[in-house]
C-alpha cells in the first residue's frame, strides 16, 4: 500500500493520464472530519466488465501501455486502504466517456493515512509528460485555491521543460496552495 | 515578499528570453528519467525527483532534461532512474534515494563514471516488449 493520501492521488491521477485524457480535474476537500479526493477525466473510460476487473491486482489494461504489464496495483491499493480505514470509494466510468473516481477518509480514524506532501504531489502531476491539462482545486475548511497546468505552462513558455522551470513550478505550487 | 504569481512567471520568462535562446541550442541529450509507476511512488520516487531537480539546479546543469515516466520494470528496486549521457551506456539505476541522486549527478553525469553498486540488469520478463 502507499504511505500517504498524496501517494494515492499521484497513482490514481496517472491512471487518468494513461487513459488518453485531455483534461483532468482533481478536487481536494478537507475539513475537520474528512479528506475527500475526486479525480475526473475525459479519457477512454471503462466498460462495466473492465471496471469490475480494475480492482483485481492481477489485471492491467495493457492496450496502450509501453510494456506488457500483467499487474495493476493502483486501484487495489486504494481499495485496501479504504477498507482498512473504513473510508468510502466510488468509481463511475463508461467507455468513451471518461472516469470519475472519488475516495474519502475519516480524519478521526486511526488507520487513515497521513496526507503527505501536497505541494510536491501537485507539482509532480503538473510536470508529468503528456498532452493533457490538469486543474487542481483545493477546498480546506472553506478556503479555496486553484491551479491549472495550462496557465502555468503558458506563463513559462519555452522554459517549461527546463530544470529551472520545474523549480519555479514547485515554488509556485507551494506558495499558491492552502497551507 | 509576496507569493509567486502567474505574472511573475511571465516576467521571468521575458527576462530570460536571450538565455533561453542560447539554451535551445545547447545539447539536451543528457536525460534523467524517473520511474513514477505505482511501485516508484510507493518507494519514494517523488523525493528522488525533487532531489535531482534541486541538485542539478545547484550545480548549474540547466541543459539536463528531467522527465517522469511510468514503471521501468524493476519494481523490487524502486525508485529506479534511467540515465542517458552521450558517449556512455544508457543505465537504469535502482534504489535511488535522495543521496544516491546526488551521487549519480556527481559521478555519472559530471564524472562520466558508472555507479556499479546501483546498476540494474534488465527489466522483468513480463514487461520486455516482444
Q: How would you write the strand order of the largest sheet of chain A?
A: 3-4-2-1-5-6
How is the main sheet of chain B built? 4 strands, mixed
Number of beta strands of chain A: 6
Radius of gyration of chain A: 16 Å
Unreliably modeled segments of chain A: none
- Estimated helix fraction of chain A: 25-40%
Q: Describe the largest sheet of chain A.
A: 6 strands, mixed
Structural class, judged by helices and strands of chain B? Answer: alpha+beta
**Annotation field: number of helices of chain B:** 5
Q: What is the average of the pLDDT values of chain A? A: 90
Q: How are helices and strands ordered from N to C of chain B?
A: HHEHHEEEH
Shape of chain B: globular
Lateral strand order in the biggest sheet of chain B: 2-1-3-4
Rounded to the nearest angstrom, the distance between the terminal CA atoms of chain B is 55 Å
Order of helices and strands of chain A: HEEHHEEHEEHH
Number of helices of chain A: 6
Overall outline of chain A: globular
What would you call the quaternary organization?
Answer: heterodimer
The average pLDDT of chain B is 86
Structural class of chain A: alpha+beta
Low-confidence stretches of chain B: none
Characterization of the model:
The complex is a heterodimer of chains A (179) and B (130). Chain A has helices at 5-18, 48-54, 74-84, 118-126, 149-156, 163-176; strands at residues 23-30, 34-41, 88-93, 99-106, 133-140, 143-148. Chain A has 179 residues and is an alpha+beta fold. A six-stranded mixed sheet of chain A has the order 3-4-2-1-5-6. The model of chain A has no long low-confidence stretch (mean pLDDT 90). Chain B is 39% helix and 13% strand. Chain B is built from five helices and four strands; from the N terminus they run H-H-E-H-H-E-E-E-H. Chain B has helices at 6-15, 17-24, 38-43, 45-58, 98-110; strands spanning 31-35, 65-69, 81-84, 91-93. The model of chain B has no long low-confidence stretch (mean pLDDT 86). The A-B interface holds A 1-3, 7, 10-11, 14, 18, 65-70, 72-74, 77, 117, 120-121, 124, 127-129, 151-152, 155-159, 161-164, 166-168, 170-172, 175-176 and B 3-4, 6-7, 9-10, 12-13, 16, 20, 23-24, 36-39, 41-42, 46-47, 49-50, 53-54, 56-57, 61-62, 64-71, 73, 123, 126-130.
